[in-house]
Input
Amino acid sequence: MQSTSPDHQSPESQLIRTGSDGRLRYTQGQRQALLEAFDRSGMSALSFTRLHGIQYQTFIIWVRKRREAMSKPHP
Output
């Protein structure tokens, strides 16, 4: 059985708090993993963000940036 204690989490699974406002910051790897999980979930963006405790507007920005990056032609 795997331990779920914070001591055994990978760095990618840990949230980083910065600033005096206490906003959560996510690494690029964390964002990518969440976007991939969203793609597999079949959930609406609103339901997914509520389930995972992510601000909806922040998540939508991630989705838009990924869509824009995928639509740009690569040289």
In short: DSSP finds three helices and two strands in the chain. Residues 56-71 form the longest helix (16 residues). The CA atoms of residues 20 and 53 lie 19 Å apart.
